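User: Just a sanity check before I run the rest of the batch. Below are the structure tokens for the first item. I only need the designed sequence back.
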């Protein structure tokens, strides 16, 4: 069986944004009244830009912006204000004042939209997504009544499915569980396998038989090559016999199948006709539901769409989709290149590489858009632990990113109920990075550690017996709390979390998710202050306070 993953790592198209707008104002139209004070501010502002004087960019940029408050937003006024908002935002970011940077990028967006600066809007949105500094406390609870649950096919009440592909793992004979468990002891919920369009599914007997024998489900990626996809989608009914034969086969497997049909459609060059995709997806979905009721249909775009497209335009509709999927990969270097010159910040921001790399930020847009509709799986993911072009071992960096994804993902996104790792490395499919688990023993060990946590379940409709609840107004019987902190500090790979109780240091944690068990049995009844502080070395980055109220056998924790 050929292994296929589309070049979906955002590498098949480049996004070169012309974000730097002129620092000086364009010549005013005769009927535009520009405040006279503006002209005296232009020179010091431009000098600040030329010398990268961040503080004066902010001072004079804000003075110019304030001059036009309340004025009609003509094109001329917008062309003066909008680039200043961007430059002030970038200055705040450079000074580490990320909240203010986000504020100014947010103010920039509606004005840039009015001007039709689409690339600038994309850039600003990426900044907002990557510069947000969150501190949230989560409590571990066995109360599953408030679990996010949609009632979709094979959806667990709580917990996360997991699995991987093994086609190219040299240690393993295809999908033989007896081989897999030597290197991955925790039983997969579902194997990740690939079927190419017009490929006879009967050739997969050996994989499916083993999955059936060991009661392991399948995530089957039914891929259509980019060169063929347009014609296939537009003439989907001409493949009726092939689709039905595949459905007949899947229906006889007696195991759950998650069918990812034509995934990553939003980045394929020859899949620009979203209506054809929708019609084809619906057609396949209807056949599967008729002939293979054990199949759950997965609609799965790439995390970032090709320029000029969005994944929303490809959504087939709730009645045809059982699960939402997403392909997302985390790389240290965009397209494997360490130095992009003047495009470095743009590429890193938009594609979330470099200092902006964060798998949680990459999946946030689809979580926001679809997290109230359906359960979500990360249908394909990987973290590059070796940069091939640079010849650089990225293991320490990659381990943090893997912890973020597998630990924080289920914690902050309760709608996330599946993560499937792409265990592969070759010069065609994974051109710039090595994602394989077999290529790095320490990375393999960390993966095993993470999927062995209580979040991940090995059986369909299994139950981990607990979930995480964000602390806003949280109460529990008893005097022990299991707490974790979610924080991703912009441009800081691995911050430290310090817990204080009534001003005294209670615990310091350096590893995600910074968990503690808080035993309050010896703490006096009444009100107390729990403080969570975030550090980069000795530099305090931020903090958050919680009110802790202890009664006879009850604890209430409230966020401020």
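Assistant: Here's the designed sequence for the first item:
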């Amino acid at each position: 069986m050929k292994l296929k993953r589309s070049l979906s790592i955002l590498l098949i198209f480049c996004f070169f944004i012309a974000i730097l707008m002129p620092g000086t104002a364009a010549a005013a139209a005769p009927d535009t009244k520009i405040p006279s004070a503006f002209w005296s501010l232009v020179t010091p502002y431009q000098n600040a830009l030329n010398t990268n004087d961040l503080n004066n960019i902010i001072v004079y940029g804000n003075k110019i912006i304030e001059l036009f408050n309340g004025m009609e937003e003509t094109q001329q006024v917008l062309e003066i204000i909008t680039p200043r908002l961007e430059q002030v935002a970038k200055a705040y970011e450079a000074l580490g004042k990320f909240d203010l940077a986000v504020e100014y990028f947010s103010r920039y967006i509606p004005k840039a939209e009015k001007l039709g600066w689409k690339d600038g809007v994309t850039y600003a949105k990426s900044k907002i997504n990557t510069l947000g500094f969150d501190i949230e406390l989560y409590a571990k609870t066995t109360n599953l009544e408030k679990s996010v649950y949609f009632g979709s096919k094979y959806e667990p009440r709580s917990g996360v499915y997991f699995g991987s592909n093994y086609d190219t793992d040299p240690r393993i004979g295809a999908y033989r569980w007896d081989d897999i468990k030597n290197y991955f002891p925790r039983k997969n919920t579902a194997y990740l396998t690939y079927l190419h369009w017009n490929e006879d599914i009967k050739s997969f007997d050996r994989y499916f038989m083993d999955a059936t024998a060991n009661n392991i489900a399948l995530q089957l990626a039914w891929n259509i090559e980019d060169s063929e996809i347009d014609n296939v989608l537009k003439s989907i009914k001409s493949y009726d016999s092939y689709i039905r034969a595949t459905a007949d086969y899947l229906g006889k497997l007696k195991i759950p199948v998650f069918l990812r049909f034509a995934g990553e459609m939003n980045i394929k060059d020859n899949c620009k006709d979203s209506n054809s995709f929708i019609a084809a997806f619906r057609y396949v979905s209807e056949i599967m539901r008729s002939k293979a009721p054990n199949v759950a249909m997965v609609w799965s775009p790439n995390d970032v769409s090709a320029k000029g497209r969005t994944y929303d335009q490809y959504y087939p509709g709730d009645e045809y989709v059982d699960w939402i999927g997403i392909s997302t990969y985390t790389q240290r270097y965009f397209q494997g290149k360490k130095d992009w010159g003047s495009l470095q910040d743009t590429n890193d921001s938009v594609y979330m590489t470099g200092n902006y790399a964060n798998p949680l930020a990459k999946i946030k847009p689809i979580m926001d858009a679809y997290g109230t509709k359906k359960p979500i799986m990360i249908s394909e993911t990987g973290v590059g632990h070796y940069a091939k072009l640079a010849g650089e071992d990225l293991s320490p960096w990659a381990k943090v990113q893997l912890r973020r994804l597998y630990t924080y993902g289920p914690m902050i996104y309760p709608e996330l109920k599946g993560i499937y790792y792409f265990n592969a490395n070759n010069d065609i499919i994974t051109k710039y990075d090595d994602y394989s688990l077999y290529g790095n023993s320490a990375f393999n060990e960390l993966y095993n550690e993470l999927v062995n946590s209580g979040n991940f379940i090995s059986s369909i409709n299994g139950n981990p017996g607990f979930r995480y609840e964000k602390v806003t107004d949280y109460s529990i019987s008893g005097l022990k709390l299991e707490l974790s902190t979610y924080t991703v500090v912009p441009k800081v790979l691995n911050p430290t979390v310090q817990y204080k109780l009534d001003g005294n240091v209670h615990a310091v944690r350096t590893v995600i998710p910074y968990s503690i068990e808080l035993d309050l049995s010896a703490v006096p009844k009444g009100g107390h202050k729990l403080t969570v502080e975030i550090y980069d070395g000795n530099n305090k980055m931020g903090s958050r306070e919680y009110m802790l109220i202890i009664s006879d056998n009850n604890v209430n924790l409230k966020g401020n």
